[in-house]
Amino acid sequence: MRALPVAVAVLLLLAPVAATSLSTDPGPTAPAATTAPTDARSPASSPSTAPVEAVSSPSTSARLGASAPRQASGENRTFRTLSVADGGPVRVESATRGANLGPSLAVAVDETDAAMETAAIVERVDAAETSGDRRQRILDALDRVERDEARLYERQRTAIREHASGDLSNRALLDELVRIAAAAREYDERLDTLDTLADETSGFSAPPRLAELRVRLQVYEGPVRAHALAAASAAVTTADVHVQSSDDALVLATIADGQYVREVIRLDRWDRDGDSISNDAAIDAVSDAYPETVALRQPDAFGAGSVQRITVPHEFGLLRTYVSGGTTRVFVEHQRIDLDAFADTEPVTEAGDGFDVTVNRSYVGGPVTVTVRDEESGDPVSGVTVTKRVGDADSRAIGDTNGDGVVRTLSPADTYRITVVDEPRVVVVEGLDPIA
Hints:
By secondary structure, this protein is α+β, with helices and mostly antiparallel strands. The protein folds into three domains: 2-88 and 247-341, no CATH class; 95-232, no CATH class; 347-432, Immunoglobulin-like (Sandwich), CATH 2.60.40. 29% of the residues lie in helices and 28% in strands. It has seven helices and 20 strands. It has an eight-stranded antiparallel β-sheet with strand order 5-6-7-8-12-11-10-9, sandwiched between helices. The chain has a four-stranded antiparallel β-sheet with strand order 13-14-15-18, with no helix packed on it. The protein has a four-stranded antiparallel β-sheet with strand order 17-16-19-20, with no helix packed on it. Helix 1 packs antiparallel against helix 2, helix 1 (101-126) packs parallel to helix 3 and helix 3 packs antiparallel against helix 4.
């Protein structure tokens, strides 16, 4: 894993990422970020305590062999995050999600079909003439949900691999992920129904595998795909989504509601036939992988069988992970980090035409902050249009500065240019590269 903020994924490397302190929560605080990069493949690490894969400091690379990171001044916060494994081809893209009736209708149709199927199951169970028949019909329906979950896994794995190979577009990938998430929610609701039917059946209760299956289904949901669906249905404004895929991993990131939102799945870390894992073992795995975040708030565990969901709500956002019993490692990560909690890292400044423009660069897919101030007074300038041009592509508006003179975007993988426009005044910040 790697820390926020930093560069492309590096297999089994740890390094800290600093962020400014907020004081909105009375809970325990984390120490200043001072951890140097650690190669988790060293003898000191084991599968049960493997750290989050690639991390980096605000000022140096998280790649293997990188020097110890410098620290931003002031009180620091370190947020580590899971990333793709090194060693194979990785596709990095940026997608824009706006109002699109197609995906919204597809999800609605899928949800209706699933709801009708659940209603049919209830009718079939209630029509049973004996308790034995009723129990068997409930178990048959549970078996079917298990098979449906396995198909969701294959659909998601296929979509990730086809995107990584270039055979699936960004839009098609997000559409498929949104539909998979919607189906998982419907199956989860069906499990609630089956649980209720079991409670109403004499001498019968739902088997333990129902609880594990419920946690497995939650794996297919995520905050970025939920935001993408909201954008497609026009519930929110257009969403820019960072997409990074490999044969066995997917990273999605966006900016929403004043937060940097990220979700990651590592299929190579999910042993679907693995042994059961306890709450304590899963918490230990997350504590080893995200020590600074866990120091902010006590983790909450929920799970059964071979999958545990560990959640850490903290003053800067939220961390949610899923731990596999077979590997004792985090294989899914959801993060929400307040943008104001990020330190100003790797700034590039350009002045002219009465503006003082600062671009705080980030790692690929991380949040980039553009700040515009009056060149003489230093006061923030609001309502100024900011555009971004990546490589040889056309410039695209990323928004207008707010009352603090700030607008944010996601860092591309290639060299980019930021332009501040307030006709007739123009300031261009060229030759920007993501932190590597």
